[in-house]
Amino acid sequence: MNALPKHVLNGYRVLDMTHVLAGPTATRLMAEMGAEVIKVEFPPLGDVSRGLPGHRNGRSAYYVQQNRGKYSLCLNVKAPEGKAIIRDLIARADVFIENFAPGVIGRLGFSWDEVRTINPNIVMCSISAFGQQGQLSALPGFDYIAQAYSGIMGMIGEPDGPPSFPMAGIGDVMTGVHAAAAIGFALLHRERGGEGQYLDISLLDAYTHCHELNIQYYSMTDGAVEPTRSGHHHFAVCPLGLFEARDGYVCIIALQPQWPAVCRAIGRPELAEDPRYDTNEKRVGAAEEVIGIVQSWVDAQASAGAVIAALERERVPCAPVLKISEVANHPHMRARGTVRAVHDEKLGEVLMPGMPLHFSGFEHNQPLSAAALGEHNAFVLGELLGYDAARISALGTEGVLFENPET
Amino acid sequence: MNALPKHVLNGYRVLDMTHVLAGPTATRLMAEMGAEVIKVEFPPLGDVSRGLPGHRNGRSAYYVQQNRGKYSLCLNVKAPEGKAIIRDLIARADVFIENFAPGVIGRLGFSWDEVRTINPNIVMCSISAFGQQGQLSALPGFDYIAQAYSGIMGMIGEPDGPPSFPMAGIGDVMTGVHAAAAIGFALLHRERGGEGQYLDISLLDAYTHCHELNIQYYSMTDGAVEPTRSGHHHFAVCPLGLFEARDGYVCIIALQPQWPAVCRAIGRPELAEDPRYDTNEKRVGAAEEVIGIVQSWVDAQASAGAVIAALERERVPCAPVLKISEVANHPHMRARGTVRAVHDEKLGEVLMPGMPLHFSGFEHNQPLSAAALGEHNAFVLGELLGYDAARISALGTEGVLFENPET
User: Which residue among B29, B131, B163 places its CB closest to the CB of A249?
Assistant: First the structure.
């Protein structure tokens, strides 16, 4: 059995009926903060993410990354005995979280109205693509679907080509963080004498939240300006963009105070005073020229590293666009635990992103184990709910409980 | 004076020395949850974001979006009297948050060691691009710099072209949410008898957190597979990507269960059984053909709306890639409050993203006002710190306090 890490959520119990990514992100953070997370999975395969790559010895690294530190309870939630177990857990949990399509949890018998009747102090959180109500709420809940509707997807890509989308689950992960934040504040409210409540978290809200400028600027100009994507150079700041060195791309950012430093770095100090380029507005107006001047200098450098070194000497904000291998093996990322080696009994050592929250009062990146499907059936029903061994055994025989140690 | 909204953080005081985006995002969420947020700004211009567009009547909508519901205290933090005021506030605050470059807050006299001496129960949070220590920590803290180092930027864009970056502050906003979450859990810990602590939150961690697959898959294959960007079609699922209709792009997603539905929607039901395309693996192998088949059908439709309607009839996950104007005016977004009209005394009505967290126990999207620079100097010093009027007036005369009602 996992020992729960000593951390801020010790003593809190989370009933976790989430799958794949946004929900499991929220409960993963809570598990890393010491909560007792009971992950409910369904026979015969459990969380869909158990089928996602990479695999070794029957185990999915995708699953492991999202579910370390959680107990796995695998049951048939459509059987009356399965529902009874869920009700017993709701009665004893502090948090109940799910990310089914809106309506499903109610049809299973666990809508907020039903849940609050069982346990008025519980914090229930539903995560969906578009929220629990409204005309879009019935749409399928994939990250990219919400990204497209939020306007974020349309803000990515070259201006004269199609939009582009990140090959990473940014929206799901970010929404999971939003959910974890909401749950934390709702628990804080409860700890100070408040009641439980229901949290309705969506990918659409989380993505739209990221428009720090676009929506208000469109609105402030009464629609005269509609911000849109501008590829690998910013439409409103110049130079701010990606330049191609011989062995990779470099991101260079020069707000007004950095322009003279760029001019020095590229060996053209006289340009700092050149009246054609001495304000950001003028540089944006002559963006093609300015970008061309910087790119010509980059072309003459031996490598992206040489470009970075020259720019950093003049304190110009810049960065190499790292590949995954470079991120995974970067000394800073490894030293900070931004990327960490996780040991799993079936996978061995695997690199994964670290716990993103650093607390001075607790150890960072604590060791935790992921579970085989249904590995904690007996523990959850026996130790937590007090069912006797014969009853647990019967539930197994009847097919209400399920387990697969080969996962 | 703002009435604080009735919400989960009533009774908590936040000393906010953040600027522009990631830090103000965290404290904005806290202000919307009813915390008393005292935003410290510096003369003569205050938060840099007061200079960011759009502007009307001297006020920045960028500033308003991030700072509604906060008190503005404008003082010279380098003057001894300014430092004394900050110390007095630290002594009376529950949370202290800053997002200067690492090292700056210490040189101002407010490192965690100094802060905890003044108030051992305070939760202090620092936000930076790369964390407070380590070889990258001295690099400038722009969103895109951290995005490039995290490997996320390299995962966006066409495979044979440069990377692309979103024209939205996704990393800053997301990091602000990470910070708010950490603060909430640290307050919860304190509420249960724990001490204050220090939180070290970074854009690098938040961005890297979003690699749900890339790092582990690179690691699981011992470097044989290095995930990289694949433009507007996914490299591992087909069809999953963007298709160009006559008046806009449509995102279409078909995992294995949806492939027959796609075939029906495009009027080619026989393709569902076609042995060339009957598994995702085969479709990925023949991606150009499969994408071509779907695109030909899209070409024949009258509009993106017609494409969506036909796909939705067969329950194929799909979405229009909305423009900002379409997001801003979308009935679902408006009804849910994902986009809301904010009333500001100088801006009038402006559309902005809504509060992304929905709590059943409290009103969503509560009315709050943004402050002119230094508008709450007298309130903060008089009402909260108990300074008498003569002392406050003298601090103004000496230039320790500053205000500009024209902001």
Answer: B163
